[in-house]
Amino acid sequence: MSDAGDRVDRLRKLAGLMLGASVRSCELRPAHGLDLFLVRLPGAPPVPDWVEGELRLRVLTHGWRLETRERVIAAALDPAKELGSALAVLVGQAVSGLEIARPGLDTTIYFGDVRLRIFPVSTRPLPEGHPAWTLRTAQHVSLVVGPGANWGMSGRKPTQQEAAQ
Question: Which residue in 39, 49, 66, 150 has the most C-beta neighbors within 10 A?
């Protein structure tokens, strides 16, 4: 497997730490972004210490939509009033699946029958470009995805052993 493939596999493993977490609340962000606050439910798969506590999934791009197999429920540029009621379908739902596609790191997060699709809209490097999404732990570790096919971590970085758990 290529280095790029290994990096995407590592990203999938790290982002997969949100599996089993439940959406406590959703908030719209300025410029068409979105915050999902996730909490771990009893019986959810165990996670390393650096992932304990609330997680915040922050969508920083206007390239996202919420959908089922049959229809699009909402998209980033819909009116805020409509988005607020549409996003309510996520509250109480657990993250049941995750897909991150190469090469652009398009991300699909499943909440049962509903999925949140996130599309990078910029390939320009930071600071001119913007990440597509971030996942922040209560211990201030952030997984930063985008712009383009770039990703990294900030804050207290887990050791190789912790990240492999």
Answer: 66
